[in-house]
Design a protein that fits this description.
Elements: H1 6-13, E1 19-20, H2 23-28, E2 42-44, H3 49-62, E3 66-69, E4 84-87, E5 95-99, E6 104-107, H4 113-120, E7 125-126, H5 139-145, H6 152-155, E8 162-169, E9 174-177, H7 185-192, H8 195-201, H9 225-229, E10 237-245, E11 247-248, E12 252-260, H10 263-270, E13 280-285, H11 286-296, E14 309-317, H12 320-333, E15 338-342, H13 345-356, H14 358-361, H15 385-399, E16 406-408, E17 413-415, H16 427-441, H17 453-456, H18 466-479, H19 523-527, H20 549-554, H21 561-573, H22 584-591, H23 598-602, H24 609-621, H25 628-632, H26 636-643, H27 647-655, H28 659-666, H29 683-689, E18 699-704, H30 707-711, H31 714-726, E19 729-732, H32 742-746, H33 750-767, E20 771-773, H34 776-790, H35 793-801, E21 802-804, H36 805-808, E22 821-824, H37 828-834, H38 837-846, E23 849-852, H39 870-877, H40 881-887, E24 893-895, H41 899-908, H42 916-922, H43 925-930
Parallel strand pairs: 2-4, 3-4, 18-19, 18-20, 20-21, 22-23, 22-24
Antiparallel strand pairs: 1-2, 5-6, 6-10, 7-11, 8-9, 8-10, 12-14, 12-15, 13-14, 13-16, 16-17
């Protein structure tokens, strides 16, 4: 079916290469990180400045609005529009030049801020502003919003760090700024007619970002049109290139954490610390810290000083003694109830990550309800922030609304998401106007760095006079007389409650495969956990992150966690994506989801795309013919059990030329994959055969025997038994082979999965002893999915009783691994559900030198085996795993607990992956005496 739009056809006729006007693309770009849903008519990913100009020309001719977009992380609705959306992040994202002598960089608008930092690092230089989204936000977006970030105290706003701009006005006229141009002369006249308004209402304090920065046009500010355009939210021009200022990165940094009795006290203290020249001074309280602990475990929050609210203060300089002295002076003068100086960069980074993830972490309110943007960015003069926080708390209490306040306290900027019930007609609008009036009473700004967008533009008359509002319109008419650029923002604004996404979504809360207990059983609410903050677009593998492996491989929005969530949200809306669960747009978006669960831990809003994909497959194919891979890979445990009756025959058959390839094809699998060999003796058979040789004393523990250990790699189970016995335990197994039903879950066969998993839980509950899982994906099912599917008390008890091997051995002194180098590939489900901290601690205690890899192995259970996924699977492996394995010396241990991880390593390299149990068993004294090689 042809889904092309009229503007899409016009753009193609004009020679634009990459025009996306299918319903899937329009769904992906219908939202940014804000509350608003505005499906575009087309998305263009320009490859050159000439294409940008051509797109603008077509839009002007056709009367279609044009909106510029970077990473789409706008919280105010600045990056959505009803016409054409220009996505600069795909092709125009390069650092063109770094001039270390001039300390500048010339960049394209789609370049990610972190990539600029990487380019400047060899010269000891950095771009000063660093929003919390620095690992995915683009410089063009930062220019559009006049972004600041935590270190604006030290380095200033984006407007303080942009040297020059290349811009296209709404008429297509190119501007090089700073510079003179005849079309700018009317601006002088506009300002000259109302100097008093500009001088008294604009530029009153550093975080007054709302509206246009008209103070830049004053004679005393040298008629700085460049400064005016920064922060104009794409309504005056399109940035096509920028020259930005780089600064030296001080070699010495320290962090001082100050504890206060409450957030008001922290706010009152913040501005008094400015005399100590901090580069950052961020505030938050115990509410958001408690969210981190509950979501990621106690280890995610390093020790904090006493108090219920804290200021995180960073000091930087060239002289370590001077910085330390400044830190001591600051702590003494702070008035804090307790202080802590953090010199260890790893601990400091962990604390800063809490602050960076604030926007996502606060997406659930203290009441456990969805919390929304819209009033997340107000700012007041810094000396008034304590009083504002107190009065704002009273305001939210009067509405019965809650949230987690945090932000740039010494700059006067407060971030908060609020659990306003959007389904109550008029309430959101009423609250925003009440909150805007409060900020105006404090002499503040509706926005402190995110821009006004659709969320706050209508509120501007609360802080500006009618004369100032008229000036905005006059300035807009100079640059964009046809109102093509981002209409409805800043000038002639749309109502703040128009086009809200959540209230119009269809509620789906019956006949579901999972319980969605964290969302009241509501699939719609679960899917709207994705607020669009876009962390799934960032490459966090360098710090052990996993999300989102498919996006890292393809760089396509549809292959990001956010893109998939948008497709699902549009499915629930039903006006653009119309075929419900069976919609092609939804299945195309989910096709390359590896079900790795990386988003469950790495997305600050708690997205679980693997569960949602299973739900979609369950709803789509229930009672219908399924893809062949669902029958082959989805029911693997049954086929493995059957084949294990004659393992040698099956193994020999797969070695006959052509048989394996034919079998793979018929099973819906890629012919380039190998068929794994069955073990000649199952683990349970070994366990029975060796019963007399094993310990009959010690504390009992149940070893959960998964399908992969039972039929393919019993040596892993054997090693686990030996390690557990060495640790003083008596190992038990279930009387009959049990299954976690993982393969049924991932292929959406949830009815069967519930029956299988129910039997397994009943048996494990009956035994009633601690359980150790050795296959991470199966252990994760017992820890998480079982509760979500069954919701029973036995499931909860089994989940609480189940540990990984490393977790269970936490008090045990392991055999020495001194001199052993380990390259570790944690299984994604291990990382996401259980966390890999216990494994790291055990290896560290044993004396091993560990290189922990981030990212996914790329096989991800059935994903990398299925036909059509091989190339992406290999690309994912190529991000971290393959380079690390290839660089490892022969005596380096390649540690991989996941069967799929070890399979991928075996398929794509000449190395063998080793399970933690095998590594530990190989160093046990009894093993070394038996096997000279040290292998058990």
């Amino acid at each position: 079916m042809d889904t092309a739009t009229p503007i899409g056809r016009a753009l193609r006729t004009a020679g634009i290469a990459e025009v996306c006007d299918d319903t899937a693309a329009r769904a992906m770009y219908s939202s940014d990180a804000s509350l608003y849903r505005v499906p575009p008519q087309a998305v263009v990913r320009p490859r050159s400045v000439d294409e940008v100009a051509a797109v603008l020309d077509v839009c002007r001719r056709e009367g279609v609005p044009l909106t510029s977009r970077g990473a789409g992380t706008s919280l105010a609705g600045n990056a959505v529009g009803p016409g054409v959306v220009l996505d600069f992040s795909r092709h125009l994202g390069r650092v063109l030049e770094v001039d270390p002598d001039a300390r500048t960089a010339r960049v394209q608008p789609g370049v990610v801020q972190t990539d600029v930092q990487r380019a400047g690092a060899p010269y000891g230089l950095r771009f000063g502003p660093d929003p919390s989204t620095h690992n995915r936000c683009t410089v063009g977006g930062m220019i559009g919003n006049n972004a600041c970030g935590a270190r604006a105290l030290g380095y200033g706003r984006t407007s303080d760090n942009v040297v020059a701009l290349e811009v296209l006005t709404g008429t297509g006229h190119p501007l090089s700024l700073p510079g003179t141009d005849g079309i700018l002369e009317p601006l002088r006249e506009i300002v000259a007619r109302d100097l008093a308004t500009v001088r008294t209402e604009f530029g009153r304090f550093g975080r007054q970002v709302s509206g246009y920065a008209l103070e830049c046009l004053l004679p005393e500010n040298r008629f700085d049109v460049r400064g005016l355009l920064i922060g104009s939210e794409g309504t005056l021009g399109i940035t096509t290139e920028a020259t930005i200022r780089l600064v030296e990165d001080p070699p010495v940094r320290t962090m001082v954490v100050l504890g206060y009795p409450d957030i008001v006290a922290a706010g009152n203290a913040a501005h008094t610390l400015l005399c100590f020249r901090p580069t950052a001074c961020e505030g938050l309280d115990s509410r958001i810290v408690d969210v981190v602990r509950s979501r990621r475990g106690p280890q995610a929050v390093p020790p904090l000083p006493r108090g219920a609210a804290w200021l995180f203060v960073e000091l930087a300089g060239d002289d370590p003694d001077e910085v330390r002295e400044r830190a001591r002076g600051l702590a003494t003068a702070s008035g804090a109830v307790d202080t802590l100086q953090v010199d260890d960069q790893v601990r400091a980074d962990a604390l800063w990550r809490i602050r960076e993830d604030g926007s996502g972490l606060s997406a659930r309110s203290p009441q456990g309800l969805p919390a929304h943007a819209g009033w997340e960015d107000a700012a007041v003069p810094p000396e008034r922030i304590g009083g504002y926080l107190r009065d704002f708390q009273e305001l939210t209490d009067s509405y019965g609304i809650t949230g987690y306040p945090y932000g740039h306290f010494a700059d006067g900027c407060i971030h908060i998401r609020l659990d306003v019930p959007l389904e109550v007609p008029g309430l959101f609008r009423e609250f925003l106007f009440a909150a805007g009036s409060l900020v105006a009473d404090y002499g503040g700004s509706m926005s402190g760095e995110h821009g006004d967008g659709r969320a706050r533009s209508e509120l501007l008359p609360l802080m500006y006079s009618p004369a100032a509002i008229r000036l905005f319109g006059a300035v807009k008419s100079v640059f964009d007389p046809d109102n093509v650029l981002n209409p409805g923002v800043l000038v002639d604004p749309h109502p703040v409650d128009l086009d809200l996404r959540v209230p119009v979504a269809r509620k789906v809360d019956v006949d579901l495969g999972f319980r969605y207990s964290g969302d009241g059983g509501n699939f719609t609410q679960a899917v709207h956990r994705c607020t669009g903050v876009g962390k799934c677009r960032a490459d966090t593998t360098g710090v052990g992150g996993v999300m989102c492996p498919s996006y890292q491989a393809t760089r396509e929005e549809k292959d990001s966690t956010r893109g998939r969530a948008r497709a699902l949200q549009e499915m629930l809306n039903g006006t653009l994506v119309t075929d419900s669960w069976r919609s092609k747009e939804v299945h195309d978006a989910l096709d390359l989801c590896l079900s790795c669960k990386g988003c469950l831990s790495d997305c600050p809003t708690g997205v679980d795309m693997a569960t949602w994909k299973s739900e979609v497959l369950h709803q789509t194919y229930r009672g219908r013919l399924r893809p062949v891979a669902h029958y082959s890979l989805g029911r693997l445990p049954r086929w493995a059990a059957l084949a294990s009756r004659a393992p040698r025959l099956v193994n020999n058959l797969t070695r006959v030329p052509g048989v394996a390839a034919t079998g793979l094809t018929l099973a819906g699998m890629d012919r380039r994959r190998t068929v794994p060999a069955l073990a000649p003796r199952t683990f349970r058979r070994w366990f029975a055969d060796t019963a007399a040789q094993r310990s009959r004393s010690g504390r009992p523990v149940v070893l959960f025997v998964d399908t992969f250990t039972e039929y393919f790699t019993p040596e892993v189970g054997v090693a686990a038994v030996r390690v557990l016995e060495a640790a003083g335990h008596r190992v038990m197994i279930t009387e009959e082979q049990q299954c976690c039903a993982l393969t049924w879950i991932t292929t959406g066969q949830l009815g069967t999965a519930r029956k299988i998993l129910g039997r397994t839980i009943s048996e494990l509950f009956r035994i009633g002893t601690p359980i150790v899982g050795i296959e991470p994906s199966c252990t994760a099912v017992l820890r998480s999915d079982a509760v979500e599917m069954l919701g029973s008390e036995p499931a909860r008890i089994v989940a609480d009783s189940t540990s990984t091997l490393a977790e269970f051995l936490g008090e045990w002194t392991p055999p020495s691994l001194d001199g052993t180098t380990v390259v570790a590939q944690p299984h994604c489900h291990h990382h996401a559900v259980m966390g890999w901290g216990a494994d790291a601690a055990l290896l560290r205690t044993a004396g091993a030198h560990v290189q922990r890899l981030g990212g996914c192995c790329g096989l991800a259970g059935n994903f990398g085996v299925e036909r059509g996924h091989y190339d992406v699977s290999v690309a994912v492996a190529g991000a971290q795993l393959l380079p690390a394995v290839e660089a490892a010396s022969d005596d380096t241990v390649v540690l991989a607990d996941g069967y799929s991880c070890r399979t991928q390593i075996g398929d794509l390299t000449s190395r063998r992956g080793t399970h933690l149990a095998e590594l530990l068993a190989s160093r046990l004294p009894s093993c070394r005496s038996r096997r000279p090689s040290g292998q058990c």
